[in-house]
Amino acid sequence: MSSAALDAGPAETGGATAPLTRMGIAVLSLAGLFIAAYLLLHRLGVVGTLECGVDGGCSVVQGSRWAVFLGIPVPAWGVGGYGLLFGAALAGVQPALAGDRRVAAVLFGLSAFAFGFSLYLTALEAFVIHAWCRWCLASAGIATAIFLLSLPEIRRLRRG
C-alpha cells in the first residue's frame, strides 16, 4: 500500500483530522526508540549480552570504530532521533497541529536524515565492517518505513 493511500484515510481526532501516516510514524519511531535504547544500554554496560544470534555480527558491529559518530555512540543518536520523530509525530496528530507546515517540515527532514544515516551505516556494515547487526538492520528498516510514510509531508509543505 502506498504512503499516499495511507494518508488519504484520515482518522477523526476531536473534530480535526490527523493523517494516518503520522500515526504510523509515531508507532514505528517508538519501536525504533526501543531498539536504539537496547543497543545503547548494551554499549553503556547496563545490558550484559547483546542477543543477536550465533554469528556474533552485532558484537562485531557494536565494537567497531564505526559505532561512535562525532564522539557519541551511534545508538545514542538513534535514541535522540527516534525520540524527536516520536514527539513530532504525536504533535502532528493533535487537532491544532494536524495541518501545521512546521510539523510537516520537521517530520520530513528528520525522516530523510534518519534514512540517509541508516543507508550510510548499512553500507559500512556491508563494505567496511563485513558484519551484520540484526538490530541495526531492523532499525534501518524502521527508518526506511518512516521515510516512506513521511513522503506525503511534501504535499503539506507545498500547500501552505
How would you explain this protein's 3D organization?
There is one protein chain. With 160 residues, the protein is mainly alpha-helical. It has a domain at 57-160: VKOR domain (de novo design (two linked rop proteins)). It is built from seven helices and four strands; from the N terminus they run αββααββαααα. The chain has a two-stranded antiparallel sheet. A hairpin with a 2-residue loop joins strand 3 and strand 4 (72-73). Residues 1-16 have low confidence and may be disordered.
Which helices and strands occur, and which strands form pairs?
Layout: H1 3-8, E1 11-13, E2 16-18, H2 20-43, H3 57-62, E3 68-69, E4 72-73, H4 74-92, H5 101-129, H6 134-150, H7 152-159
Antiparallel strand pairs: 1-2, 3-4
Helix pairs in contact: 2-4, 2-6, 4-5, 5-6, 5-7
Distance between the termini: 26 Å
Biggest beta sheet attributes: 2 strands, antiparallel
* Structure class: mainly alpha
Radius of gyration, CA atoms, in whole angstroms:
17 Å
CATH architecture of the domain at 57-160: Up-down Bundle
Strand content range: 5-15%
Number of helices: 7
How many DSSP-defined strands? Answer: 4
